[in-house]
Amino acid sequence: MYFTYILECVDKSLYVGCTNNLERRLQQHNNYKDGAHYTKIRRPVTLKYSEKFTTLKEARRREAEIKGWRREKKLRLFN
Q1: Residue 46 is part of which domain span?
Q2: DSSP-assigned letters across all residues of 30-57
Q3: pTM score of the predicted model
C-alpha cells in the first residue's frame, strides 16, 4: 500500500509527498534528519490528508497532480 499525503507545517505552509509507510514518514518529518529539508525547518508538521493507492506509480501521479494545485484547492481536500 502507498500513500499520498499533505502535511501542514508550523508556518501554515503545505507539503505534499508520498510513502509506503505513512506513520514512519510522519515521524521522520517531525523527528529525524532523514525528513525532507522543507519540513525540517518548519517543524512540527501535522498530517492533514492522505489517500491510499495500490502502486507507487499511482501515488506519485497523484502527488504530482496535487502539487500542481493552488493552495486553496489543496485546503478544500481537508477542510
Answers
A1: 2-78
A2: HH-TTS-HHHHTT-S-EEEEEEEESSHH
A3: 0.94
Determine contact, residues 54/2, Cβ cutoff 8 Å.
yes
For residue 10, give the amino acid letter: V
User: Could you tell me the three cell numbers for 79?
Assistant: 477542510
Three cell numbers written together for 10: 508550523
Calculate what percentage of the chain has a pLDDT beyond 90: 91
Cell numbers for 42 = 518548519
| The pLDDT value given to residue 25 | 95
User: Is there a contact between 60 and 18 (Cβ–Cβ < 8 Å)?
Assistant: yes
CA-to-CA separations, 9 to 18, 38, 41, 54, 56, in angstroms, rounded:
16, 9, 9, 27, 24
CATH code for position 63: 3.40.1440.10
